Amino acid sequence: MRDKFRREGEFYAYIVKCADGTYYTGYTNDLDNRIKEHNNSKRGAKYLRGRLPVRLAYVKDYKYYKRALQAERRIKGLSHKQKQELVRIYEKAS
Predict the structure, then answer these.
(1) Which of 4, 9, 15, 70 might form a disulfide with 58, Cβ 3.0–4.6 angstroms?
(2) In angstroms, how far is the first alpha carbon of the chain from the final one?
């Protein structure tokens, strides 16, 4: 029996910038919906409560969920300053 979790398709590692200037990093297979959840529902991350609204500051897409998860973990290990630089480079390239 195949498990119901999709392992291949479109997955994203992302950073949102919070209203207080902090960053939150995550991964998802439905980016638009996840950003809406963060801003408008209780399904958003606990960290973001009291830091709303958030805006998408960085995103990178992956074909496999495992790659997106690994990217999320790498980004979470960065300092605030390093995340700022990553966002700056991303915004400049967009």
Answers:
(1) 15
(2) 42
pTM of the model: 0.89
CATH number at 54 reads 3.40.1440.10
**Structural domain span for residue 46:** 8-93
Does residue 1 lie within any of the structural domains? no
What's the pLDDT tens digit per position in 41-71?
888 889 999 999 999 999 999 999 999 999 9
- Does residue 84 lie in a domain region? yes
Q: What is the pLDDT of residue 44?
A: 85
- CA 29 – CA 7 distance, rounded (Å): 10
